[in-house]
């Protein structure tokens, strides 16, 4: 029973390019959460999705960032026209259910380290 | 001031020592999580607690809701316990709760 799978583990982009980060939740999990960890800072909530629905995107920057969780396939966090300040570790977590938007138990992926040159 | 504060930021110990990591928060919460982040970056959920105390192996977590404080204890520490330990609180928001994370405590245990 594979855990939460994120890929790629490391992603290097030049300023202005697009970054696509993928997250496959654990089998049977229909709730996905994305978090960002900036250097020397704590994790910050970005977005909470269920299949085909964005439930809470209050932590997402208003521009250039988008997320989806289609009926089939992984959840995608997309960052358009990346800038140096987007360099961070992006973590995905999944859960089988959620109470008021927060899972009772958190299952995290290993993260994607995005570096913008 | 951060809503979730952890202390110490960095901690070194000799194998076998008893470790305590503290977490204080300034918001009303419904639960608190302790997480472990390994040197490779992976994050593992250790505990979720809303009152009292929980124990799992050599790890013990306590919370005092009135004092807005939680502690994570590691008994008989081992080098494999070396990791960053993160406290996260669950805060009520409009229609969904939010997790607010501390910046972590980096623990190194030497043999």
Features:
heterodimer; A: 117 residues; mainly beta; 7-stranded mixed sheet; 4-stranded antiparallel sheet; 11 strands; 0% helix; B: 111 residues; 6-stranded mixed sheet; globular
Secondary structure topology:
The complex is a heterodimer of chains A (117) and B (111).
Chain A: E1 5-7, E2 10-13, E3 19-24, E4 31-37, E5 43-50, E6 53-56, E7 65-68, E8 75-79, E9 88-95, E10 107-108, E11 112-116
Parallel strand pairs in A: 2-11
Antiparallel strand pairs in A: 1-3, 3-8, 4-5, 4-9, 5-6, 7-8, 9-10, 9-11
Chain B: E1 4-7, E2 10-14, E3 19-25, E4 29-37, E5 43-49, E6 52-56, E7 59-64, E8 69-74, E9 83-92, E10 97-101, E11 105-110
Parallel strand pairs in B: 2-11
Antiparallel strand pairs in B: 1-3, 3-8, 4-5, 4-9, 6-7, 7-8, 9-10, 9-11
Task: Give an overview of the whole structure.
The complex is a heterodimer of chains A (about 120) and B (about 110). Chain A is an all-beta fold and about 120 residues long. Helices cover about 0% and strands about 50% of the residues of chain A. In chain A, the strands form two sheets. In chain A, strands 2, 4, 5, 6, 9, 10 and 11 form a seven-stranded mixed sheet that branches. Chain A has a four-stranded antiparallel sheet with strand order 1-3-8-7, with no helix packed on it. Chain A is globular and about 40 Å long. Chain B has about 110 residues and is mainly beta. Helix content of chain B is about 0%, strand content about 65%. Chain B is globular and about 50 Å long. The model of chain B has no long low-confidence stretch (mean pLDDT about 90). The chains are: A mainly beta (about 120), B mainly beta (about 110). The interface between A and B is medium-sized, with 27 and 26 residues.
């Amino acid at each position: 029973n594979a855990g939460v799978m994120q890929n790629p583990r490391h992603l290097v982009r030049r300023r202005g390019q697009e970054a696509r980060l993928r997250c496959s939740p654990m089998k049977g999990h229909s709730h996905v959460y994305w978090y960002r960890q900036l250097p020397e800072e704590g994790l910050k909530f970005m977005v909470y999705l269920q299949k085909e629905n964005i439930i809470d995107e209050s932590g997402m920057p208003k521009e250039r960032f988008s997320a989806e969780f289609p009926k089939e396939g992984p959840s995608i966090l997309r960052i358009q026209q990346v800038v140096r300040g987007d360099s961070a570790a992006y973590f995905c977590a999944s859960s089988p259910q959620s109470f008021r938007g927060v899972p009772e138990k958190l299952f995290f992926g290993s993260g994607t380290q995005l570096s913008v040159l | 001031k951060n809503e979730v504060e952890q202390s110490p930021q960095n901690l070194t110990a000799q194998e076998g020592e008893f470790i305590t990591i503290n977490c204080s928060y300034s918001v009303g919460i419904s639960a608190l999580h302790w997480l472990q982040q390994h040197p490779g970056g992976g994050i593992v959920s250790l505990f979720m607690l809303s009152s009292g105390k929980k124990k799992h192996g050599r790890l013990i977590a306590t919370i005092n809701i009135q004092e807005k404080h939680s502690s994570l204890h590691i008994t008989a520490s081992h080098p494999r316990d070396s990791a960053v330990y993160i406290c996260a609180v669950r805060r009520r928001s409009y229609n969904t709760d939010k997790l607010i994370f501390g910046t972590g405590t980096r623990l190194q245990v030497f043999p």
